[in-house]
Amino acid sequence: MTAKPRIQQKYPLQKFATFFKGYGVALSLITAALPVGIAISDVFPFFTSIKASITAATSIGAYLLVGFIFSRRHSIARIYFPGRSGTTTGYLKDVRFSRLFGLLSASLALLSIVFFLSYLSLVDKSVNDAAFDHAFQTAPGTSERIPIRAAINNQILEIVKMRKQKRKQKQEQEQEQEQEQELEQNPIGALVTLRGQLVAYGIDKPIWITYRAQEGLGLPTVRSYSVQFTDKDTPQELRERLPSTSVPNVGLMAFYFLSAFLCCTSAFILMGLKEYLQEGLGLSDNQLIFRPMGGTEKRRFDIEHAAGFYGFVEFSPLDASLEPRIQGPLCALHDKPPLPLDVDQDGKVISWQHRNEADYKKSLEPCQLKGGITVSELEGLRDKSAMKTVRDYRQTFGEAQENSTPEASVLEGHG
Predict the structure, then answer these.
(1) Other C-beta atoms lying within 10 Å of the C-beta of residue 314
(2) Distances, alpha carbon 213 to alpha carbons 185, 188, 189, 224, in Å
(3) What's the rounded Cα separation, in Å, for the pair 146 and 53?
């Protein structure tokens, strides 16, 4: 008895990685090496103290995301290719959702670009914030250095004092003239530039700080500011020397970077996964192009032998293998599902009620429709009426198709 040769089959993830090699890069390298490679090559600016932790978290998150998406490939296949098990017709809701889901990859790619731009903007802002927090100014007439925040507060206090003195000196002048002269002497609301000294972790270089103050409930406060460095190497030195505990906006910065790569990875994986699933399902490009997925018809029907009740049935006129979806029964007076209110000894419903969910209050209200039928009998009549509607529509649709064929037109012409 000869042993049968053992056929070696690739595991699904191996097949998936093999498919992605057609793009030129293995799956594992795409998910993990890309963030690390970007960090090493300094394509994006980083604070050195948090570079390793951010890139490590991004690599791990990308790995886990690929595994999660691939583990949900069966559910994603039903979304990408609804009703493709031997038919080209899907339910209308599934077909619409499939088309919207097809835009998810492009949306994630666009969102990734937005997160990357937000990250770059936040890094620049964090450098300015760090420089502002570590900026000093030499006090007039002394060699003492005071923080730039204290220097700005002192300047604002001097402005407030000068404003009060002007008001006392010119109380007898007209109000309009007083306001004009006060505006000339008062920089509150105007741009003010100060020269400072950046002193932090071995850095001692001059910088310029431009700020704008605004009126507050008490003293005026700084509304916005910007930092101008005297050379281009200072921001890089600040990013390299600043410890992680002193990096401003570190949480939001890590979120932007992580989200940018996860969105980028998701978009890439979903685009490739669709091709992988198409190959696994045995669907050719010709089938998808020349036999696109068709939708269903949805028809309302009255339930026979149950006056006042109706339902909806969704079905395919051409594909009998697609099981119809039936919705109902519904009350014709209120367009709501009926619930039994009073039931006799035989189980027949004497009167009905409805659930009222208006104004977020779930209460029951009685219905004027009378019963005389059990719930199971009503559901049975609903199914029979729905299937009758489907048969009648398919028969009418089939006759219309036959009458519209070229053979029928030729016969009519000879007649």
Answers:
(1) 20
(2) 14, 5, 5, 7
(3) 34
